[in-house]
Structures are given as structure tokens and as C-alpha cells.
Here is the input.
Amino acid sequence: MSGADDDQSQAPYLDATAAYVARQPARFHVPGHKGGLGADDALVEVLGEAALAHDLAQGVDGIDDGPEPTPYTQAERLAAEAYGAEKSWFLTNGASQGNHALCLALAPLGRRVVAQRNSHASIVDGLVLSGGNPIFIEPEYDSELGMALGVEPTKLAALLAENPDVRTAFIVSPTYYGLAADVAGCAEVAHAAGVALVVDQSWGAHLGFHPDLPPSALALGADAVLTSTHKLGGSMTQSAMLHLGSGGRIDEAAVGRAVRILRSTSQSTLLISSLDAARRQLATRGEKLIGETLEKLAVVRERLEAIDGIELVDESFVGRAGVAGFDPLRIVLDVRAVGCSGLQFLEHLSTHHDVHPEMAAQATVVFVVSLAETDEQFERLVAGVEATAAELSCGFVAVEPVPRLGVSAGCVVPPREAFLGEAEVVALDQAVGRISCESIAGYPPGIPALLPGERVSAEVIDNLRQTAAAGSRLHGASDPTLSTIAVLLEERPD
Here is the structure.
């Protein structure tokens, strides 16, 4: 790519929508609120007149339609250049849309793929849509903290050698906890086996924009990468990007068709504009903003480490099996020495001090740091953690994390067949040995404990119950009380 599209200071889509609004045209097209004129007064007050004015219909000439390259096309090209991709697509239904598209393109009916067992639930949903058949690979695991780590390249190599018909492998890096896998090693073994490597980098939209961060998965050899840009990239919630590497192992046209079939014909111009703006900020100011935040973070970490009962999960994990890097824009507290669970710590911190972490588990609490945090925000975080630790302190209590599930036997029928098959609803305890029609994941982080096509075990039931009791929402469960579950109807003798 060359020419005007290479100027990362541009935001062509954002600028085109702003120019349209500035003209004050007579709008006789949707949306029906007509730039806010027909919107509820309270909505106008909350969102502001400017946001509603820029909420436009798809297909406006000179924005997403018209002679190529349109501002939309230009914006996606700039994103590809910024991320070092051959091609990038804007997603307005989150990274989940990208996972669904990749499954449709790379795991069609009956195709076997390797997938990290703790992949996001959207991978499973994508396989339901596509009819692909997963072979699961277990990540490394920290049993003390109850944290999944990354996939080890040697284990990936062994699994691919056992399954020579596999042509795609899906892994996750970084994790919710900011721990990055050995993507370069996984790419090397995958490519040696003739396999494309797809990396869910949803938690690393900012990687590659500062030398003190782990490298982007694309730079490490991944063939396709998802970035959930709204998480740490600065765009609006529900916006994300899908990037294609330059190795030629993935058919760009096939991915493009899948993205289009999953795309709304009424995409939000606000979400697209926010992706365009977030890319510009990362490309032109990301290193400066991240650098300033990292300087503040160094002091914050020292203060947190000095609090009785608080330990930090940090770069000291690098070098362990499954961990090749750590994202410093993540603060992960081990609160076991306070004498409470991470979930109890989060509840007290948010309720009594109005400081709200991203998530908590049995042993840990996770805070997500933005590109540009203020001193005031950091001060509230440290003060809140210090006060909570003092208020809950009762000496060390061994907090048992929700137990790790054993290595899955895999799906005995493809996820699509189980999900779409004839089902019956049974009491949860009566489901042992039956084939699940549901994908159930504790959320956050959205990692399925049970997949459609897997047999329900007593171990899985215990895991789900403990996950629910710990305060996690069970994503995908048809019965939120977990009293019943849908299982595949099996033929019975007359």
C-alpha cells in the first residue's frame, strides 16, 4: 500500500461522517431519530446531540458508498498498515463476529481444526455455525492461582503430528490476565506442519504500539489475528478488527465472504468511526500515551506490592511454560493472603469504595489499565485496594480456586450436530453421561466448561455449580438456575 492511504494521521471515515453532518443536509433516510431530532429527550441528554447527529444510515454516498476507495475502504487499509496486516476488516459485533467468520471460512462442514480448550465461547458458537469439528489442546495451567496460561509449542507440534488432516489451529494470546503465549513458537510448528495459526488477541489490540509491550501476534508469524479494539484500543464497545497475515495460508476471499454474511446491513457509523479514530490514535500517539501510563504504573505497582496481603501477578511469570510475555497494562492481584477470595474482594471494593475491577476469580482480581490513565484514577485504585485489604484482612486463608477440569475427551459428535439436534431437558444430575446440546461458560471470562457435543460428567457439573456459587454468570445456559440442561435425545428401545 502506498499513497494517501499510508498517512496514519488521517481518519477518513470519521472525517467523512463529520463533513456530512456539518453540511446539515435534509435527512429523509434512517435512522428515524433524524440526527437526534426525533430522539427521546433523556437519550439526547445522556448521549449528546453530536453523537446522535453522527449516527447515520449505511450507504450514504461519499462515506461507505461511491467511487472506490471510499472512506470506509481507506479506513480499513490504514488499519491494515498500522497492524502490519495484509488485509483488515472492521467488525461491529465484537471479536465474536471475527471468530464466527474465521470458523465459517476455515472450519466448514466436517473439517477438523485444533482449538485451545479455553478459547472464548464465540469459537464454539462459530463451529456450531460452520459445522467444523474441534480437536482440543489444553493450555498450561497454574493450579495455585487457578489461571490458564498459554499453549506450549511442543504440545501443539505433537497434536498436529497426530492429526495430519488438520489445516488450522486456534490459540489465545494474551489471556485475560495479560499473559502472552509463545506465539512465535506456535507459528513455527504450525507452519512446519502446513497449518495456519489463528490467534485470538482480543485482549491485545494495543500490542505492537510500544516496545515495552509484547509484540503483536502478526509480527510473530500468526496468519490471522483478532483484536477486540474496544477493550484496550480506545474504540467504542462492540467494535473490533480482524487482521490477515501475509503468509498466504488463509484465503482472503473466503474470509471476506464470511465477514460480509455476518455483517449487519445497518452497521453503526459510530462504531466504525470509533475504530478509525482508535487506529489513528494508536498509530500516531500510542507509543507516547502508553509510555506515560507505564511510568505511572511503575509507581502504582510498588505501592500495591507494599500493601499487606497483596501479591502481584506480573512479568515474573515470563519464562514459565505457556508464558512468553506479560502485558503491563494489566494489574492482577493475588489476594489470598488477605484471607478472602478474589470475588469477595471485588464485591467489597466496588460496593464500599466505588472502584470497579474488570473481573475476579477465586484467588485473583484483575484491573484493566487504559492507554492514558489519570493520576486521580490510579490514586483511587491504590487507596481502594489498601482500604479493602485492611477491612477484610483475617490472615492467610487458603482459597481453593474452582477446580480445573480434566483434559476433555473431546466432542463425541460435532458441536453443530449436537446444538441443532433434537434435545430433551433433564435434571442436571441426570445428565451425567449424556451429550450436551449447550455451550455453558462462566462469564467473565467466557471460557466454556461444557460444549455442545461433549458428554456431561460429574466433574463438569461440580465445576459449573462452583462457578455459579462463586458469583459468575453462566453464559449460554438455557436454565440460568442450572437446575436443568438440554441434552441430545437418544434413541431408546421400545
Observations:
- The chain has three domains: 3-282, 291-392, 415-488.
- Residues 269-305 form the longest helix (37 residues).
- The longest strand covers residues 87-91.
- The chain has 15 helices and 20 strands.
